[in-house]
Amino acid sequence: MNRVENRNAWEAASKKHVHEYRELLEQARNSSSLVACELELLRPLLASRPVVVHLQSGHGLDDIALVAEGARSVVGVDFSSVATLAAQRRADELGVDCRYVVAAVPGVPLRDGCTDLVYTGKGALIWLRDLEVWAADVARLLRPGGHLFVHEGHPMVPLWTWDEDEPRIRPDRGYFERSHVNDTFPGNGAVEWQATLAEIITAVLGAGLELRHVAEHPEPFWKWDGLDAAAWRGQLPNTFTLLARKRS
Ligand SMILES: C[S@@+](CC[C@H](N)C(=O)[O-])C[C@H]1O[C@@H](n2cnc3c(N)ncnc32)[C@H](O)[C@@H]1O
Prior knowledge:
It is a single chain. By secondary structure, the chain is of the alpha/beta class. The protein has one domain: 3-Layer(aba) Sandwich (Rossmann fold). Helix content is 32%, strand content 23%. It contains 8 helices and 9 strands. It has helices at 3-13, 15-19, 21-30, 36-46, 61-68, 81-94, 131-141, 197-206, and strands spanning 51-55, 73-78, 98-102, 115-121, 142-153, 179-181, 191-193, 209-217, 239-246. Strands 3-2-1-4-5-9-8 form a 7-stranded mixed β-sheet, sandwiched between helices. The protein has a two-stranded antiparallel sheet with strand order 6-7. The longest helix is centred in the middle third of the chain and has 14 residues, at 81-94. It is globular and about 45 Å long. Bound molecules: S-adenosylmethionine (SAM). Residues 53-146 form the Methyltransferase domain.
């Protein structure tokens, strides 16, 4: 599946953000979408009121939370016009300094060195075929001394079944495969790209960024409503956080 088909799949899937507009607005108003493992790393960076670029910004709730935690402003970049329109409307209604650009990642149409912090994740990297090109684009966007922060699904996650009795490995998936067909969300047979944790780290290092932190976490960043998969109960990695810095 190429970028056009993926984009069409996301335009359709993002209608959820429009249907749930009010619910998400109240969520953004009353709670933070940033979880503890994110805040621990982000708070020291947000203390200096950075300008943030959020790649693959989706419904934009993280952008509202980033501003609430100290970001001066956030530019969200996403190739779904449905998602960016809903995110812009929500930020405007809450009076939060977020601006959205409809564009594909990598190849972001923002100037070199425009940001102090690139924030991304929560289901973003699996849509990118070439992480070396992505990491180069991130490095280009960062000012010297700026940071890349990623909170993402762990590359092992495609292997876990959602069985509730005990965790199992899907026999049709492999950690070292290049891709698999998504059979849950956003559906339509969309192809998700796979990269190992080592490959993700190597892409970041290859772009000249300094690695400051990598950690693996048992909590997933997202749960299917009403499901309590055994793979989410603490035994297995479900997310990772990564912080890297562009040399001054
Ligand atoms: C699972 S969502 C996560 C978004 C965001 N982190 C959130 O929590 O709402 C993935 C997002 O990536 C966007 N996306 C996927 N591939 C993209 C690409 N190549 N360029 C720009 N946006 C892309 C989709 O439109 C979607 O909004």
